Amino acid sequence: MEPVKLAVVGAGLIGSKHARLVHGQPECSLVGVCDPDPGRRSVAEELEAPFYRDLTALLEEQQPEGVIVATPNGTHLAVAEVCAAKGVDLLIEKPIADTLPAARSIVEVAAASGCRILVGHHRRHNPLIREARSQVQGGALGRLIAASMMWTLLKPAEYFQVDWRCRRPQGGPLLINLIHELDILRYICGEIRQVYAQSASMARGLEVEDTLSITLSFADGALGSIIASDAAPSPWSYEISSGENPYYFHTSQNCYHFLGSEGALAFPRMELWRYGDPSRAGWQHPLSRTRREVAPADPLVLQLQHFCRVVRGREPPLVDGADGARTLAVALAVQESIDRQAPVLLADEDAFRSGFDDSAPGVRAESPDTDSCN
């Protein structure tokens, strides 16, 4: 089978990474890179791909089968409309859009043209995450009772020399980083029904938050919590603990814990804690620990390979447009809870998918870049 013809729109940090991955995979070929900034031409030249500043020209001349959208979140709808008009499938970087109305419009224009949408919540493709989901959803822990996450690290001082990272609504760890954690919770634990959050900016005194405390409840009654800070030197965050991204210093610490009626799972070391004899359960009895061995793999590569199969019609998208919009809604609900200083209830899943309930949170979630290292 001929390689899937793909183009990349947006040649910033994550867009250029996507372009290099496409160039290096036998399942696909890079037929073009598009960015309005002429300074990004070097990305295309490095990969010996045509460079365009106009998306319509790229689509007409190169006729890609799929487009990877790595532009600022507020432009995702405009890019999707141009691609949908040409019947081109889309891999859209997270979040799917800057608002729920824009996300709904993306889903609608794609459905009207028959285009497929894969939203780039790439961590769902990580074998560690998929094994954790298998353990929780498969009943290894019994009934899920609670989940606890820590996302705590220190962003370097030079990170904040970029002005938008210091201001709302673009900056801050919630919509740049924690949308990953919220998506993972949905994927592993089930739908989130309510959030209650607080934030602080005392560490740096910037307009954006540097620390958050989020409590949430799941549709099946389980509870969850996230403690997050980008101002605290710590070994407990997905990036640092998982070793997924070589940009980060790697530790071997666990950062997520899933608690069930019959056992507990620590991630990413995949340590499963249970009583060896279920008839002798209670705090006076010893717990046994076993480890699930999981072969590592680059989730961005796995996501790209999956997108190629989606384009070929061999698989449905792991994260379709409505699914990606639901994660956006949860992140916006967290922001709304912070602003209102009150719990926020999300629409149930059926109502949400049927129309992205207009009563759901509608706070903007835009970012001028889609840096994966952030």
Features:
alpha/beta; nine-stranded mixed β-sheet; 22% strand; 11 helices; 374 residues
What would you say this structure looks like, in words?
- The chain is built from eleven helices and 15 strands.
- It is an alpha/beta fold and 374 residues long.
- The strands form two sheets. It has a nine-stranded mixed sheet. The chain has a six-stranded parallel sheet with strand order 3-2-1-4-5-6, with helices on both faces.
- Strand 4 (66-69), helix 4 and strand 5 form a beta-alpha-beta unit.
- The longest helix is centred in the C-terminal third of the chain and has 20 residues, at 321-340.
Write the layout of secondary structure elements.
Elements: E1 4-9, H1 13-24, E2 28-34, H2 41-46, E3 51-52, H3 55-62, E4 66-69, H4 76-85, E5 89-93, H5 100-113, E6 117-120, H6 127-137, E7 144-152, H7 173-189, E8 192-200, E9 211-218, E10 223-229, H8 238-242, E11 256-260, E12 264-267, E13 271-275, E14 287-291, H9 299-311, H10 321-340, E15 344-345, H11 349-355
Parallel strand pairs: 1-2, 1-4, 2-3, 4-5, 5-6, 7-10
Antiparallel strand pairs: 7-11, 8-9, 8-15, 9-10, 11-12, 12-13, 13-14
Helix pairs in contact: 4-5, 5-10, 6-7, 7-10
Question: How do the strands of the widest beta sheet line up side by side?
Answer: 14-13-12-11-7-10-9-8-15
Class derived from helix and strand content: alpha/beta
Fraction of residues in helix: 25-40%
Please indicate the percent range of residues in DSSP E strands (runs of 2 or more). Answer: 15-25%
Number of alpha- plus pi-helical segments: 11
Q: How can the largest sheet be summarized?
A: 9 strands, mixed
- N to C succession of SSEs: EHEHEHEHEHEHEHEEEHEEEEHHEH
How widely separated are the two ends? 37 Å
Low-confidence stretches: 357-374
Oligomeric category: single chain
Radius of gyration computed on alpha carbons: 21 Å
Overall residue-averaged pLDDT value: 93
Based on CA inertia axes, which overall geometry fits? globular
Would you report the number of β strands? Answer: 15
